[in-house]
Amino acid sequence: MIITDLQPVSIVKDKGFVNFMRLLDFKYTAPSRRTLMRNHLPQLYALKHELLMQELESVDHCCLTTDMWTSRATQWYLTVTCTYINEEMELKSAVLNAIKDNDELTFLIQQVKATVTYFHKSSKASDNLVVNQNRLNLPNHKLIQQVETRWNSVYYMLNRYIEQKEAVKTTLCLLDKSDSIIPSEKTALMKDAISTLMPFEALTTEMSAEKNVTGSKVIPLSRGLQQVTTTSTSVLGVNLNNQMGNRFPL
């Protein structure tokens, strides 16, 4: 489970896992985390490493990608992924940079983010939102918060806010929070951002496939994004096109 499903070693201490093992065999005692780390994992690693090396020897062509990430213990890691047949391939995008270069959109995103935070932290506000959703015949969808490490969460947040903006505005008015209402004239900017980011979100989903070879799609899809953003007249669209041009020159 630890290797196949990427479960943490601490799973052996989880109450649910312990109870599950007791149902299978009440006499069995799972090894401790320390025992796993010192005795079992090194052997499993050596075995899996050998099997992987044997498999890679039969691969004629592959694509290598690297990714930097930080663990919860704030330790930096550089991950190298070898893509072949059914392996995963990641595509890095320039969307975060483009958004930060647009001051007006950045400020608007912060406003929406603050509104979403308010509804997430206030049970009264979230309850009233559901009531107003029902009154306005809107879907009972929760507002989505932006996650800094995932650019497409901005797209999802803005998209959901547009869907629920009438219920949000009504709720804020009833709770004497009118000063938190985002002006209606900003709706056009949000819709434009959503429209511009939509093809990038679609490409991200396409390139995140785990059971398909996606390396061969990088060039044609990047060219397609450049063509889409070339015709855009918005600040965001122009910035995206410039960033794409820097990373994927024609």
Automatic annotation (TrEMBL):
UniProt KW keywords: Metal-binding, Nucleus, Zinc, Zinc-finger
Which superkingdom is the protein from?
Answer: Eukaryota
Cellular component per GO, a single term: nucleus
Sample GO molecular function, one term: zinc ion binding
Cellular localization per UniProt: Nucleus
Q: Does the keyword Signal apply?
A: no
Q: What is this protein called?
A: HAT C-terminal dimerisation domain-containing protein
- The species this protein was found in: Amphimedon queenslandica (Sponge)
Lineage, highest ranks first: Eukaryota, Metazoa, Porifera, Demospongiae, Heteroscleromorpha
